[in-house]
Amino acid sequence: MKKIYLMVLAAMTMVSCTDIVDYDEGYTPASEIENSSAPEITAVYDVADTEMAHPLTEGEMGQMLHLVGKNLNNLKALSFNTVEADIKETYTYGDDAYVVVPNRLSLAHDNTISYTTDKGTCSFPFIIPFPSLTVNGAECEFVNAGDIMKVTGKNFDIYKFGEVSHITIAGKELAIENVSADAIEFRIPDGTPDNSTITLSWEDQEGKTLMAEVPFRPTQNLLYGDMTDMNLSKDGPVNVSKEDGYLHFTGSFDAWSWNTIDLSRNMIDVGEMGDLNDWVVKFEIMTADSYPLTEASPLQWSFNWSKEYRWEMGTLNTHGQWRTITLPLAEMANKGIPAAGKWMTLRIIFQPTAEYDADFSIANIRIVRK
Hints:
Helices cover 5% and strands 42% of the residues. It has 370 residues and is mainly β. It has a 5-stranded antiparallel β-sheet with strand order 17-20-25-22-23, with no helix packed on it. A 5-stranded antiparallel β-sheet has the order 18-19-26-21-24, with no helix packed on it.
């Protein structure tokens, strides 16, 4: 009896299988539809624009886009502004494609999407603006000839310095030592004279040449020169010594210990100054590795007993390297600047708000135009 039951069950199972309807028979997924001709792109949308209400004419690096057109399957190659995209990051569905703009840019100015399938290639006008280059300035303007200078800013890595973009002194191309997104390093040729100008030149999106200038050892407007004719007086426990061209500040201080350092001499001739807002004070600073300046040890500055300007430097540790600092002249000289040849005093006020050990140096104090 058991044997008969099993035979009936097997027969029922076979009948049931033959009754299954394959509703997928003859169906081809959209991603597998064969192209009938060359691809065509008719519009581009941000992937978040599911209603396709706002067609785009430009995008940005890393953006996911929805391409609409015809015959977009079987993608072989994709590029934005000549930069190849990773087709592993693309999804195609016949008349739609979802793609990611590369996180790299080219200095080419064709501004097109190039889309290649097994049936051909099409182009679609589409702008990927590459970020503008920002040049902040030299990390230290007073490096020595023969040494490496570092200039900081944004997007140096995009602009291909040494190939398309250039750094020169007196028309001579400088050797690029290192480049990253936020800095570029290059070597100053041996024998380069003080007060030389470094020129960075590059092209923008429209092919227009832009330039930025960085000074090299700008000694012409030093307020104190070699310091031999500078009068130094101080009040408080801070130690200040004249070293070889710079001032060295040291000491251990209680909280709220009051210190002033007055640097006096006849004012140099910097020419007609006009609006002091067009001028800045620059200097180099160096902190010993274990003695950073902190929020508890701010420095204040004043020309000829003007209202003090408080330099909010946060925590500053140069790890024994010189760094160029820029401060607003107008905010530390509200009483104006003496005429050339008149007595001038620059006061530095040092009052830590907590116990503090100091070991820092300042050099090359100068007044320059912005």
